[in-house]
Amino acid sequence: MEQTELYRQKLTTAAEAVKEVRSGDWVDYGWCTGTPEALDRALAARYEELHDVKVRGGIIFHRPAIMSVPDAPEHFTWNSWHMSGVERKMIAEGGTYYIPLRYSELPRYYREHLAPVHVAMFQVAPMDEHGFFNFGPNASHMAALCDVAEVIIVEVNRNMPRCLGGSQEAVHISQVTHIVEGENPPMPELGAGGPATEVEKAVAELIVPEIPNGACLQLGIGGMPNAVGSMIAQSDLKDLGVHTEMYVDAFVDIARAGKITGMKKNVDRGRQAYAFGAGTKKLYEYLNNNPSCMASPVDYTNDVRVISQLDNFISINNAVDVDLFGQVNAESSGTKHISGAGGQLDFVLGAYLSKGGKSFICCSSTYQDKEGLLHSRIVPMLSHGSIVTDTRTNIHHLVTEYGMVNLKGCSTWERTERIISVSHPDFREELIQEAEKMKIWRRSNRK
């Protein structure tokens, strides 16, 4: 059958398409900028007749309509693979939960472990001449989702960039159950933030000299990775490569400055591999139909075995706090959920296995609470309920505005000394006293 005729037969309205959802179903909303909008509103309109519908998604930009209906938790439960700021607020209100994961394993979760997905609904780019709907900058785990979903509903958005890859970046019309032509909302933007702070600049100034020409980069999201990216764009570095989980605005700036060629990469030479991307308009315009960029499934981008093949791999990520054992928390403040594990551990491990590779965990030495009180991010022990994202055996370099330390091979007293050396001076004596109580401090440490 002609693809245009198949398209016509499968085309329907959002209200009709969501009739596929039944009470008790597991429904998937896709990922990040591919989260449905017209379908979400249509499903919310059915709330009175639906109960215990469990929805998966993640990194959303606005509250789903289904979670704004009266007595929402009786009708819908939101389950997130990775929390955005919107989802953090939803957790506090009830009916929203995080799904702990090692992000590189997510496609396998779908194919082997999860309860059947009855309906998958998500936004896509318009169908191409070969009958494929591109996932946009959301390749991640979408092909695995489509492999197991009983019903696939695509919401076409003409503003969705077409992100080239090579495998698993699109779904064919033959797999699709229903097609809905959405309202073509603009791509949601994730601001790059304001100018780098003095602390962020200080951290960046410590890291950039550690990056050699021809290095392959992974940047996490946040002020410090962005500050490093900005400084790289202004540096004399050349022939850099990209192999990352999330493609962010900083990569666009580095590429436009002529620093990225990918010609020194051991695999995917000349291409920038990424699992998903979100940022400002310039990012979506850069990714659209760009053959140098490679949208890929996350079980490829975040596979430690792939990362380790890339020489001089540089991984740069944030932390909420770090304790004197070297345990890194990047997910919560006590029991208060902040983010998720994502692929941080994948890149920490992969970078260290890379020939010449380095991983950097960055954080400011302190933060201020709502009352303006100063607190140390270097703590004796992680708070009750805080999550260990990277174990003490995995951390390589720890960086604050007060310095950079390498913790590989250090005994407990050595790493305690080094960690305290990059803490804020106002908290060092207190940290030393606590370290002494914990029997991880030697008197000879004190200089």
Q: Count of DSSP E strands?
A: 25
Percent range for β-strand residues? 15-25%
Helix content: 25-40%
The low-pLDDT segments are: none
By CATH, the superfamily of the largest domain comes out as Acetyl-CoA hydrolase/transferase C-terminal domain
| Large-scale geometry | globular
Active site: 245
Pathway: Lipid metabolism; butanoate metabolism
Catalytic activity: butanoate + acetyl-CoA = butanoyl-CoA + acetate
Keywords: Fatty acid metabolism, Lipid metabolism, Transferase
Task: Describe this protein's structure.
With 447 residues, the protein is α/β, with parallel strands linked by helices. The protein has two domains: 3-181, 3-Layer(aba) Sandwich (Glutaconate Coenzyme A-transferase), CATH 3.40.1080; 198-445, Glutaconate Coenzyme A-transferase. The chain has 16 helices and 25 strands. The strands form six sheets. An eight-stranded parallel β-sheet has the order 1-10-8-6-2-3-4-5. It has an eight-stranded mixed β-sheet with strand order 14-13-12-11-15-20-24-25, with helices on both faces. A three-stranded mixed β-sheet has the order 17-16-23, with no helix packed on it. Strand 24 and strand 25 (403-406) form a beta hairpin. Helix 6 (106-113) runs parallel beside helix 7 (142-148), helix 8 crosses helix 9 (223-233) and helix 15 runs antiparallel to helix 16. The mean pLDDT is 94. This is Butyryl-CoA:acetate CoA-transferase. One of its GO terms (biological process) is butyrate biosynthetic process. InterPro entries: AcetylCoA_hyd_C (IPR026888), AcetylCoA_hyd_C_sf (IPR038460), ActCoA_hydro (IPR046433), ActCoA_hydro_N (IPR003702), Butryl-CoA_acetate_CoA_Tfrase (IPR023990), NagB/RpiA_transferase-like (IPR037171).
